Amino acid sequence: MPPLLSTGRLYSSPLAPQHGPDDRLYIGGNESEGHFSLINEACSMFAHTNPLHLDVFKSVVRFEAEVVAMTAALLGSKEKASGGQICGNMTSGGTESILLAVKSSRDYMKANKNITCPEMIIPESAHSAYDKAAQYFKIKLWRVPVNKEFQADVKAIKKYINKNTILIVGSAPGFPHGIIDPIEELGELALSYRICLHVDLCLGGFVLPFARKLGYPIPPFDFSVQGVTSISADVHKYGLAPKGTSIVLYRNHEIRKHQFVAVTEWSGGLYVSPTIAGSRPGSLIAGAWAAMLSLGQEGYLEHTREIMEASKRLQNGVKEIPELFMIGRPDMTIVAFGSNVIDIFEVNDLLSSKGWHLNPLQRPNSIHICVTLQHVPIVDNFLKDLKDSVQIVKQNPGPISGGLAPIYGAAGKIPDRGLLFQQPMVTMCAASTVESCKM
Question: Sign of the CA dihedral 53, 54, 56, 61?
Answer without folding.
Answer: positive
